[in-house]
Amino acid sequence: QVQLVESGGGLVQAGGSLRLSCAASERTISTYAIGWFRQAPGKEREFVASISYGDGTDSSHSDSVKGRFTITRDNAKNTVYLEMNMLKPEDTAVYFCAGRATNITTTFARPGSYKYWGQGTQVTVSS
User: Fold this and answer.
1) Residue 24, CB half-sphere, CA atoms under 13 Å: how many?
2) 3-state DSSP: the chain helix, strand, coil percent, rounded to 5?
3) What pairing do the DSSP bridges indicate for beta strands 79-84 and 69-74?
4) How far apart are alpha carbons 8 and 87 in whole angstroms?
5) For 27-47, how does the pLDDT look when each residue is reduced to its tens digit (9 = 90+)?
6) Do 19 and 73 contact (CB within 8 A), yes or no?
7) CA distances from 121 to 27, 34, 76 (A)
8) In whole angstroms, what is the distance from residue 48 CA to residue 28 CA?
9) Cα 106–chain centre separation
10) Pair type for strands 69-74 and 59-61
């Protein structure tokens, strides 16, 4: 089974940028759809973005991040990225990546659709 490890979180001022990485423990990340979710204190886990398996033909982003965040994948590096620009204080949360083995070219927005989860990385945006 795949293990996922997030990195790249940190403290940034509003308007700044961060790039999160989700590294997989095995060289078959291409067979997984990957999603990014976030959870702020006292709130439910929230969908951020998802990318389909393989070459990532399909991707989707939540309305709250559309136009600011971009999910991409580099299967040669066994890594999926979340590029975050124009960050806002309300983006502050723990960010998780999740994986689902699939051979269907689609994205998945529900946490229950994913079997494998990373431990999370903290993103804090100061005003």
Assistant:
1) 26
2) 10, 50, 45
3) antiparallel
4) 14
5) 789 999 999 999 999 999 999
6) no
7) 22, 16, 23
8) 23
9) 15
10) unpaired
